[in-house]
Amino acid sequence: MILVDFYKVIKARRSIRKFTSEPISEDILERILNSARLAPTWANMQGCRYIIVDDKENVNKLKKAINQKWLKTVHLFLVICIQERRSGKNPNGIKYFTVDAAICMEHLILAATNEGLGSCWIGYFNEKDVKNALDIPKRERVIGITPLGYPATKPKEQERKDLGKIVYKNRYGNNWDL
How far apart, in Å, are the Cα atoms of 20 and each of 37, 93, 117, 121, 159? Predict the structure, then answer.
């Protein structure tokens, strides 16, 4: 069975940086966060924690901590945290907690897109400033932040590379001819 609508959601997802002031209902937030909760994680440890930031004082603290000019129209953020110990590491010793959080964040962002909301994964921030702004414990790692809201404008479709330029078959460098 092919879930055609899923591919439409993936294609529709864009990084949105301008939002309307329309509030997001608790029901929609619950569905979005439930989608993140259902994401696969290392040994099903479900180590991610999520912070909804929607009161004006904390939104402004977080904007100041992130320090990016385009955040002016943001009224709600979702922050994803994880402790390194709530995940594992692969045979090469590479810790997997960032991968767990990234999978959860992508579920969250795709669910938001499905609800007609815009988001923009923010990875460029001073973690210490964000932790201080939101009283996040030292043991937690802040992996990603996204504003969430209704897009103020319809985003244009972005050009993407052809599969033949980014996919190899059987070994690296062996182009996949479509």
Answer: 27, 44, 10, 18, 26
